Amino acid sequence: MSQNDTNGLDRVRKVAEINLSIVLESKKQLTDMHGAAFRWILATLVTINGGGAIGIVGTDKISYYGKISGGSCFCTGVFFALMLAYANMIAIQKLLKPTMSILDFWAIALVSGHYDENDISNRQGSLQMQTAPWTIASHVLGWVSVVFFLAGVVQIGINLNLPPTPTSPPKTQPPPCSQTRLPPQPS
Length: 187
Hints:
Layout: H1 3-55, H2 64-112, H3 117-158
C-alpha cells in the first residue's frame, strides 16, 4: 500500500468519524427538540378542544343547537389532535430505519476507509422519501384540529342565549293623534 493510499484512507476515516459524530449529535438534538415541541402541541390541541367540549356542557347560556354543534367541533378537534399524534408516531418509526442506515454507512466508512458517494446519497434520499408523507400529514392534521377549535368557538358565539342589554332608557310613546284632545278654539 502506498503512502497516498494510506493518506486517502486516513482522510476518509477522519471524515467518517466527523460525520458519524455529527449525525449522532444531530439525531439526539432533533429527537429531544421534536419530542418536546410535539408534546406541547399535542397537549395544547387536546386541552383547548377538550376544554371547549366540557365547558359548554354545564351552561344554560348556549342553545341546545350551539352545544351540539360546538361540542361536535371540539370533539372533532380532539380526534384530529390524536390523529396528529398517530401520524407523528408513524413518521418517527419511518425515520428510524433510514437514520440507522446512514449511521451504519459512516461507521463502516470509519472502520474500512471506504466512501461511496452514490450509497450515501441513496440512503439520505431514502430518509427524505420515508418521512415526507407523514410530515405533511402531521402538519395538515394539526391545522385541521385548530380549525375545528375555531369553528366550535364560532358556533358557541352564534348560539349564545344572552338577555338583551338596554342601550338607552325606554322612550315613552305619545298617544296616537286620534286620542289627543285639542283645547277648544275661540269662535
